[in-house]
Amino acid sequence: MKFGYIPLALSLLLGACAGQDTRPPSPATTATACTCAPAETLPPLQIPDAERYTPPSAKPGEAPKGTEYGLLHPAEWGSLPGFDQDNLLEAWGALKQSCSTLKNHAAWHAACEAVAQSAASSNEAIRALLVERFNPYQVINPDGSDTGLITGYYEPLLNGSRTRSERYRYPLYSRPDDLIDIELGTIYPELASHRLRGKLNGNRLIPYYSRGEIDITPSPLAGKELLWVDDIVDLFFLQIQGSGIIRLENGDSLHVGYADQNGQRYQSIGRVLIEQGELTADKASMQGIKEWGRRNPDKLRNLLNSNPSYVFFRELPNSLSGPFGALGVPIAAERSLAVDPRYIPLGAPVFLSTTFPNSNRPLQRLMLAQDTGGAIKGAVRADLFWGTGLDAGRRAGAMKQNGSRMWVLLPKDWVANGGK
């Protein structure tokens, strides 16, 4: 649910598409993703036939066995490295969360009913259920290759207050009443994943206030403050990730999540620092940007304002087990992925084969495709959710693993029901 989340490893170099209903890019080394309001999750886009990959095993003139997602190649369970060793019990809760939504689709109903009725008492029992109810499909890129990039994102933890003070003087704003949000797909079906945001000036729709126009005194959004925090850079990264936890002065904590965005195009401040010669690419991580800000407080505000994109928040129930993803369910640390829903069905189990950050140690485990992201574009491309807090942020910022492979697990009823 990113504006809800952003790949921290690529956000430096990429920018999110201004009109898309997805997270913005993260400033660490890519551009989360914006996950938008879960209840408004859009169906996956269909891949044009010209972009579909025909597996080389298919005979000339014969359509390959597959799915409506044309870049999924039927595979064998034995081709999933580490599947037999994965601790599937750790993914069981996330799988049940996905099924709470997917069970309403005919192709998923039987498999998700089996998940709901299973005792899941052991890894072996879960593994047997997956093999019985699902078929694996390897994700293939449009050029026929089968490897890609995995980055990471996380949920920030900030210090805040419900009232403004000298310490807590940086506001989180709730969604403004004058923000107009138009779903273009209601007018042009081919633009189903795009939105237009702005405000009315007479009978004309004009761009909404930019970051620089919002972060002034007095602000045009005065009166819409949801909370106040003590660090402007942490607030900036909270907007990039799209959700987080605010620790209040009395010791209580509350969850905040993405409510909307001002419609302005995302600009990576990491890229700005690189282009200005302030930081080298290897130093333009979240930590590097924070350190630069501490050394250059007089330049910090101008740097932040170079990204006109601005995210608005809402308070979420404290009972949530994690932040909401684009699927509309809480995501799970180290078991949820943000994916491109044009290539991978949102909610589907995905077996991931990659490596840990800054390491060659294999990371091979069952994940759930429960989120989307502005920088997550392509077939073999995903953003791994590392959890909440500073340590998760460090791991997310270091995650930039090329050569990764992915397999989608689809119910055996999928083809028979047309994937609907």
Automatic annotation (TrEMBL):
Gene Ontology molecular functions: hydrolase activity, hydrolyzing O-glycosyl compounds; peptidoglycan lytic transglycosylase activity
Q: Region (Disordered) spans which residues? A: 45-65
Q: Where is the Lytic transglycosylase MltA domain?
A: 157-314
Q: Which organism is it from?
A: mine drainage metagenome
What name goes with this protein?
Answer: peptidoglycan lytic exotransglycosylase
Swiss-Prot/TrEMBL GO biological process terms: cell wall organization; peptidoglycan catabolic process; peptidoglycan turnover
SMART domains for this protein: MltA (SM00925)
Enzyme Commission code(s) on record: 4.2.2.n1
Catalytic activity reported: Exolytic cleavage of the (1->4)-beta-glycosidic linkage between N-acetylmuramic acid (MurNAc) and N-acetylglucosamine (GlcNAc) residues in peptidoglycan, from either the reducing or the non-reducing ends of the peptidoglycan chains, with concomitant formation of a 1,6-anhydrobond in the MurNAc residue
Q: Which Gene3D superfamilies match?
A: Barwin-like endoglucanases, RlpA-like domain
Gene giving rise to this polypeptide: mltA_10
Could you list this entry's UniProt keywords, alphabetically sorted.
Cell wall biogenesis/degradation, Lyase
Which SUPFAM superfamilies did the record assign?
Barwin-like endoglucanases
